[in-house]
Amino acid sequence: ELKVEQNPLFLSMQEGKNYTIYCNYSTTSDRLYWYRQDPGKSLESLFVLLSNGAVKQEGRLMASLDTKARLSTLHITAAVHDLSATYFCAVGTTSGTYKYIFGTGTRLKVLA
Amino acid sequence: DADVTQTPRNRITKTGKRIMLECSQTKGHDRMYWYRQDPGLGLRLIYYSFDVKDINKGEISDGYSVSRQAQAKFSLSLESAIPNQTALYFCATSDQGAPTYNEQFFGPGTRLTVL
């Protein structure tokens, strides 16, 4: 059974600091996705990671994928208040029965 | 205009009532999904459809049904609403191929309260 775990679940950090959110998954997967959700809003796609060693960066966010370790990370560099949101990873498969499982989310609060 | 729209945006109903949530998209995607979001549980898949003639159950389909009326429209029904179906419901669409590789595009959500 495919399970997706994120940690931490809550993260409060000061502006200017760096931190990493971790996404672990339990079975072989082809694709890993990161989404952002602002309070009361919908989800917005951030990154799609398709292969082992994939790294993508957008502004202060960088996502990476290690399929052997079944681990993806979302690294935040020099956090700013505007990054405050909930971040979800999701793991998908392209073979066999369709699966697309979301982690429970990491609520990030960046303090000024 | 938004690519994925949901109606209604908010709905309060009573236990036992039948309600329908509607989703429309202009992205031209074949794949459409219904999720519910509950605090602390992330998003859970209710139903998904890969084309008009293909409907599949997700993790938590009990108590729900769907209809894919056209490529662009996917409706979710609660036949007899119960309080534990109170949640935020999202519709999403995706395209399997490049360049998005099943990246999902979400509607604004419907907040449903069952009294």
Q: How is this fold's topology laid out?
A:
The complex is a heterodimer of chains A (112) and B (115).
Chain A lengths: L3 E4 L2 E5 L4 E7 L5 E7 L5 E7 L5 E4 L2 E6 L4 E6 L8 E8 L7 E3 L3 E6 L1
Parallel strand pairs in A: 2-11
Antiparallel strand pairs in A: 1-3, 3-8, 4-5, 4-9, 6-7, 7-8, 9-10, 9-11
Chain B lengths: L3 E4 L2 E4 L5 E7 L5 E8 L3 E10 L2 E4 L6 E7 L2 E6 L8 E8 L10 E2 L3 E5 L1
Parallel strand pairs in B: 2-11
Antiparallel strand pairs in B: 1-3, 3-8, 4-5, 4-9, 5-6, 7-8, 9-10, 9-11
Keywords summarizing the entry:
A: 112 residues; mainly beta; B: 115 residues; seven-stranded mixed sheet; four-stranded antiparallel sheet; 57% strand
How would you summarize this macromolecular structure in one to three sentences?
The complex is a heterodimer of chains A (112) and B (115). Chain A has 112 residues and is mostly beta strands.
Describe it.
The complex is a heterodimer of chains A (112) and B (115). Chain A is an all-beta fold and 112 residues long. Chain A is 0% helix and 56% strand. Chain A has no helices and eleven strands. In chain A, the strands form two sheets. In chain A, strands 2, 4, 5, 9, 10 and 11 form a six-stranded mixed sheet that branches. In chain A, strands 1-3-8-7-6 form a five-stranded antiparallel sheet, with no helix packed on it. In chain B, strand 4 and strand 5 (42-51) form a beta hairpin. The radius of gyration of chain B is 13 Å and the shape is globular.
